[in-house]
Amino acid sequence: MDMENKTSDESLHNVIHVGGMYESWFLDYASYVILERAVPSLEDGLKPVQRRILHAMKEMDDGRFNKVANVIGQTMQYHPHGDASISDAIVNLGQKDLLIETQGNWGDVRTGDDAAAARYIEARLSKFALDVAFNPKTTSWQLSYDGRKNEPLALPMKFPLLLAQGAEGIAVGLSTKILPHNFCELIDASVKYLRGKKFELYPDFTTGGMVDVANYNDGKRGGKVRVRAHIEEKDKKTLLIKDVPYGVTTTQVMESIVKANDNGKIKIKKVVDNTAAVVEIEVQLAPGISPDITIDALYAFTDCEISISPNACVIVSDKPHFLTASDLLKSSADYTKDLLKQELEIKLAELQEKWHFTSLEKIFFEKQIYKELEQKHKDWEAVLVAIDKGFTPYKKQLKREITREDVVKLTEKPVRRIYRLDINELNEQIKGIEGEIKDVKGNLANLVDYTVSYYDNLLKKYGKGRERKTTIKTFDNIQVASVAIANTKIYVNREDGFIGTSLKKDEFVADCSDLDNIIVFRKDGKMLVTKVADKTFVGKDIIHIDVFRKNDERTTYNMIYVEGKTGVSYAKRFNVTGVTRDKEYELAHKGEKNSKVQYFSANPNGEAEVVTIKLSPNCSARNKEFDMFFETIAIKGRISMGNVVTKYPIRSVKFKEKGVSTLAGQKIWYDTETGRLNTEERGVYIGAFEGEDKIFVAFKNGTYELTNYDLTNRYESNDVVYIEKFNPEKIVTAIYFDADKKQFNVKRFRIETQTLNNKFLFIKEGTSNYLEMVTTHTQPVVLLKTGKKRSPEEEEIDLSEFVEITGWRTVGTRIAGDDLISAELLSEDEDPDPNEEGIVGGQGELF
């Protein structure tokens, strides 16, 4: 019994509770997933499965393509997981078009099409991979999972592969997302780092598109990039999406467009995928829909624009670390330099060994030490000792001791070597080896230069065709409420105080979108802003309701109210630029209980009308009827008291006469980075606009366009040559290239068309023709440079005298041959229009 009790007690002490098992086992599992599956290594930039694939392909490499199914089988000798994970990893590597050359249908990342089955597609290592990723002499090895074979701990990768390919993985409680970068830019940055210079790295995607890297923050965790597809305006009814953002397929883009249309965010007629060799998604617009606003809406509401947050997590010394793109590049460059150093040291040792044995061989034959083989020594050891003794006078010529192995190796030389021996040949070999040793030592002494030369050679061999595909651009911030189409209607019940989209039996107010806010003014002098909804109570006696535009500094509200405590009436003018939603604001002074609004008007351009005020007939005022001019009242804040109108009770206020705007023209700037108009003083000031004013824009392809000054207008900044406030009296002077005649022509004309948003070709038609210079200066004088760039000929020409004013359709007059280097505008207007002080392209230069 005692033994049984003792055994029972020991068993209790050895019990492991489930909680403890979970804690240790889960930690082991998490560590395994992080280190062995999901997160790449800093040294070679590879996940374990990728490293095993490349190692297996190197073992199979004979210069020919192998079936991917065979590669999978070879890799499974090293990879302890199923074939599906290997197959996916191979396809992923192949689609990156860097380490693996592919043959067959490998799918398409742009359309989301899958690769064909592994038995149908083939692969082999690229020449680039063979150059940068393999060297058994500098590779550290470990046993495979079953102990049968050796596999590399890390490949000797002499290139920043992790930044070139990018990486994505989800582990347990950890994830990584490293964006791909440009091949050529990575090499250039590596060289700059080795030279001690500053460098910058920005993502580049094989799918093309545009990227805004303002918040990339060097790829650090917490940074962000915005990626957009290029969208072109084919015509006023059709848009073409020319590529897809990184990580998004054409199918996803189309589905997001259809969804946005179904939700009423955009309005399209049809969307068609014409993708073949290049991406092209055709978006057909519904009648009356603006292409510019639709482009903004596509970026705002669909996958035509996405946001990506990088998270550069890598394995460093068997632990996950969060680094920056610069850290990754510096580490790669240092690793490459160290690998090249190891290769040079190995080569040096091999050359020194080769020099040693060649020198031994020369002495062995030249000094006839080989004749010891003909002597009758008592045994083989005695022969070896005799040969070693024969070298004694010459040992000082050598750089290391002669070993027994050296002597044995000499004796293994065939006898015919003696008869065919050429001592001069051995001397030449030794001389050549010494030259190689000198070169290797020189490279070791100048390791940075050697590494830079290595990178330069990589760029020369493999850089062609790997130029940047993604355009780096600053994106404009799209206000979603301003580009959402009017997909609903707002109604009001003024008496009961309800507004909403469901009150269809009540008074219609305006078309709006479900993202809009509504501003409401009540007779008690209170105002509030609320979001569009089915039905909202905002208070009784509504006197004005409209769609609210944030930061609107032009809509001016004119109001007359009576202050409840004193009975004095005041007039005020104010704007409402920003408020807290659903908060009531007092507009009548102090919000006294009996205060009320006697007159109210909303004026989109600050108009100041005239009203007739009639006082109560029982009051003691001498003049009981008079006119009040709102233009005499300054526009102030909404909390201002206003100007006293009268201390007597007012019987009525009636509109008498429409007033003119009291605001200056709306000042507008053109942002050359985003190609958008703005009132925030970004970019170049192009004028003050009001009424029917227009904008004149000239493009590289020789077309011009007249547009209104709506801030939603979009101009492709890379194509715009000239933009200014339109003046029909101005003469346009243009120089363009005529490819057919291989000459430059000049012409001067007035803008005769008045149609908005239509492009008119004002140079000779031809696919290779382009606009060199355009200006509206009154007396343009240009400096023409022709001939060779190093020693050009210069000539000043007054274009107003050189060519007459003709119609905009004329071909023009020859001014230079095809050897024109540049046309620089020298003249300036003596009395420029103060509203056009910042004309883009005003010097007649392409920007």
TrEMBL record:
Q: Does the keyword Cell inner membrane apply?
A: no
Q: Which reaction(s) does the protein catalyse, per the Swiss-Prot or TrEMBL entry?
A: ATP-dependent breakage, passage and rejoining of double-stranded DNA
Please indicate which superkingdom the organism of origin belongs to: Bacteria
Q: Where is there biased composition of kind Acidic residues?
A: 826-836
Q: Which Pfam family name is an example for this entry?
A: DNA_topoisoIV
Family, as annotated = Belongs to the type II topoisomerase GyrA/ParC subunit family.
How is this protein annotated for GO cellular component?
cytoplasm; DNA topoisomerase type II (double strand cut, ATP-hydrolyzing) complex
Q: What is this protein called?
A: Topoisomerase-4 subunit A
Annotated region Disordered: where? 825-847
Q: Which residues form a coiled coil?
A: 416-443
Report the record's Gene Ontology biological process terms.
DNA topological change
User: Is Nucleus included in the keywords of this UniProt record?
Assistant: no
The alphabetized UniProt keywords are:
Coiled coil, DNA-binding, Isomerase, Topoisomerase
Q: Describe the location of the Topo IIA-type catalytic domain by residue ranges.
A: 39-488
What InterPro entries would the database entry show? Topo_IIA-like_dom_sf, Topo_IIA_A/C_ab, Topo_IIA_A_a_sf, Topo_IIA_dom_A, Type_II_DNA_Topoisomerases
Write out the catalytic residues in the record.
Y120 (o-(5'-phospho-dna)-tyrosine intermediate)
**PROSITE patterns given in the database record:** TOPO_IIA
Q: Which organism is it from?
A: Chitinophaga niastensis
